[in-house]
Amino acid sequence: MIDPRLRQQIDFILEIDRLKEITRRTYLASGNRRENTAEHSWHLAMLVMVLGEYAAEPIDVGHTMKLVLVHDIVEIDAGDTFAYDTDGNNSKSKRETAAADRIFGLLPPDQAQSMRALWDEFEARATPEARFANVVDRLMPMLHNFYTDGKGWSEHGVTIDRVVERNQTIVAEGSPVLWDFVEHLLKVAIAKGYLKA
Question: Above 80 in pLDDT, residue 86?
Fold first, then answer.
């Protein structure tokens, strides 16, 4: 007989394996294929470990890593909403909230509550950790786009004004140093024709 708590935990673990099947719009840095959501979440955890010193406020790196590992689990049900999809973003919150209710609800109540609290914290951006988690979530797709010569940007007709509008406030607030770096990349991207002015 399997312990009911362990059964719930295993069910959750198997459910989140589906993140590997959610394809994002962003290409890997090699440009060979698009990344999946599980890869994206793992990469963000690594960014937190490596770049955490650039957070605008002191952060608990371990806690911030938990935020980025949990933040996109909802895409199992809600799908990946393209950053520049206006219509998709209008319904994103409702779809993702319903997904959070279902997926985190697979866990035993104590773990369901703590995982859901992490997801809610990321979404609210009210803590230093959540603000920096959102920084790396915005930074990595820009890096992917830049290092694939703007492949994703050009496929979707994304222009510099849209990139700045979507990212400046969140990245600059959470890490002025990383926003300065992004501004440099964007200038180079325009000069090289990766991104249209």
Answer: no
